[in-house]
Target: MFS transporter
Amino acid sequence: MSHTPSRHTGSPARRLALGVLSATMLMTVLDGSIVTVAMPAIQRDLGFSAAGLSWIVNAYLIAYGGLLLLAGRLGDLLGRKTMFLAGNAVFTAASLLAGAAAGPAMLIAARFLQGVGSAMASAVVLGILVTTFPEPGERARAIGVFSFTGAAGASIGSVLGGVLTDALGWNSIFLINLPIGLATIVLGVRALPAERGAGLAAGADGLGAVLVTAGLMLGLYAVVQVEEYGWAAPRTLGLGAVSVALLAGFAVRQATARTPLMPLRVLRSREVAGANAVQVLSLAAMFAFQILVALFMQRVLGYGALRTGLAMLPAAVAIGGVSLFASARLSTRFGARAVLLSGLVSLLAAMAWLTRVPTDAAYVTDLLPVMLLIAGGGLVLPALTTLGMSGARADDAGLVSGLFTTTQQIGMAAGVAVLSTLAAGRTAHLLDAGAGEAEALAGGYRLAFVVAAALLVAAFAVGATVLRRPRPADGRSAGDERHDARRRSGAPAS
Model:
C-alpha cells in the first residue's frame, strides 16, 4: 500500500483531514438521533403503521451494522480514501431520496441506502485517522476531537430534529445532509492522504463476504425485533441460530480460504480482541443508560420531552468535554490502558448510583451526579480506539476500523434489547405483585442498572487482564512491529 505524505505532512492539511472525518462522524450520529424526533410527523404525513414506523430506524441499523466489516476490508483492498468518498456519495444521494420520499416504501429503501453509505464511510474512518496521525500524542488529540464530535452529535440531534421538523417539515432532517455530504466529498478529495489499496486479489473472498454480511444482518434483525417478539420466541431463537451458524461458517471459511476477507491474525492481537470485547460490554451499558434514564425521567418523574433533553444535556457536555480536553493529555501521560480503566470506574460509579434512584428522585441530588460521573465515557471511548487500533498493521487498518465500528453497533443494539427486556419483565412482575405503576417502573429500571453495572465490572476485568499499553514509542502499531520481526526472522507474516 503506498502513501503520498508530502502533500499532507503539514499540520493545516492534517487538521483539514480531521475536519472531514469528524464531519462525516457528525453526520452519521446526527442521522441516528435526529430521525427519532421527527417520527411522529413522518407517520402522520406518510401513513406509516405503528409497526412499520420502527423500520425507519431498523432499516438503517441493519444495513449499517451488517456491512461495516465487509466495507472495512474492501477499504484496505480498494483504498480507504476511495471507500470513504464513495460512502459519502451514497449517503448523500440516499438523503436526497429520503427527503423526497412520498410513501413508506420509498423512505425505508432510502434509509437502507443511507445505512449502506454510512457503513462504507464509517468503516474506514478510524483507519484513515490512525494513518494520517502516526505520532502518538498527535493521534491521541485527533481521537479526542473525533470522539467529541460523536458526543456532540448525539446531544444536539434531538434538539436540531425538533427545530427543523417544526420550522421546515420532516423532509429537512434528511436534506440538511446534502451540503454536509457534498462538502466532505469535495474537501476529502483534497485533504485525505492518497493511497492505493492492496487489490482485490489480496482478499477477494466472495463466499466469506456473503456469510459475514448475511450473518450480521440477520443477527441485528433478530435483536431489533426482540421488543416485539421476546427473547424466547421461536422467531427470535430461529433467526439467532441461523445468524450464529452463518458467522461460524464465516470463521471456518477464514481459516481455510487462500485470500480470506478477514485474516484471523487480526483477532490474535490482544489489543484488537481485548478492545473490541471491552467495547461491546461498556457500550451496552452506556447506550442503555441513555435510553433508560430518559425513559425513567418521562415515565416515572413525569418530565416532558424538552425537560428530559435539557436534563440529559450535562451528560453529553461532560462526555464531550472530557474527550476533547482531557483524554489525549491523560493518555499521553499515563497510557491509554490506565485511562480506560479509570473511565470504566467512573461509569461504574454512575450505574451504582442509579441502582438506588427513588421514585420521587430530585434532579440535583439524585440525577445530576450521575450526569457528571458519566463523563467517564469521554475517557473510555478514545482510550478504546487508541488501544484497538494500536494492534492493527497498516494493511489491516481498514478491516480493524470496520470491526471496531461493528462491535460498537452490536454493543449498543444488544444493550438496549437486553436491558429494556429485563426492565419490562421486572416491571410486569412488580405490577402483578400489587406495586404501583411508578414503583414498578422504577424497580424495572433499577434492575437494568444493576445488570449494566455488572457489564462494566466485566469490561474492567477484561481491560485489566487482556489489554496492555501499546509498546511502540514511534507511533507505529504493535502489529507492524510484530510483522517486521517475523519478516526479519524469515517466519511467515501471517
The radius of gyration is 22 Å. The first helix runs from residue 11 to 46. The CA atoms of residues 227 and 421 lie 7 Å apart. The mean pLDDT is 82.
